[in-house]
Amino acid sequence: MKLRHLIKQYVTLKLSLGFRFRTEQRILKGFDQAMGGITLGQVRPVAVRTYLDGRGPVTLYWLRKWGTLRGLYRFALARGMVRRCPLPLRAPKVAVHFTPYIYSQPELRRLLQAITPERTNGVSPQTVRTLLLLLYGAGLRLSEALKLEAADVDVRAHLLHVRHSTFFKSRLVPIGPKLAKVLADYLAERLACAGSRCFLCANQGTPVSRATAERIFRALRLAAEVKRPTSCRYQPRLHDLRHTMATHCLVNAYRTGGRCAGATRQSLRLLGTRQSRRHPKVSDDHSRPSPAGWRPLRPLCPRRFP
Prior knowledge:
By secondary structure, the protein is mainly alpha-helical. The chain is 50% helix and 3% strand. The protein has a three-stranded antiparallel sheet, with no helix packed on it.
């Protein structure tokens, strides 16, 4: 039996059970391509370990790939399709922990100033500007912002209705008056989206895809010279705007003496204990003398900010 046929059966089962299984599908597709379209009996432990190790150090994505392949082979073993599992029995210790990039205010301004029609090919500059401000101002995930419909944006009530997000949950996201004005202006002037339900549209009226948004942001980041040191493996991402929003809210509340208690609690909940301590901007501000009247912060919530 071909490996790709096993993967197809496994993915079909997961999708029929209601799993989204998007990342796992990409991992399994890459695994099949790395193996070269062979049969199940031809999969060797050395080839599997080479696929898992990749080219860099061991990261959390190594564990993600390992867990996905373990599920695949549990499926195959239970149905008698294979006699053995070629995966390593134990996962190695993660050598490098990923740290999100926290943009500074000057870097955010440079990103907005770098928006030009040449760099946003296929999407209007106003749409790209609105997307960046939406990710930073509301702390949305990229997929949540791209799936927003015009009916989900209530600029009068200063609310966004995010539907069927992580774990298929929906929620209302409050926004500030400045972001509400940006969204209202975009709603009034988005000519390409006439007759379309989606909020952020490309020039042809179609929804902006994730690949298009990441391609445009890569060009903006290079033009704005926003980058990590050359020794780092990962460069700043669009998703890091979400972490930046939470970090800036926390730091601003600390500097103002805790007057923004609601924003502080939300930021602590989003960042989590380990994540907040990896951000140098949070650690630096907590090492300064506390403002007058500021109460010591409670231990950070152990939930991470995905």
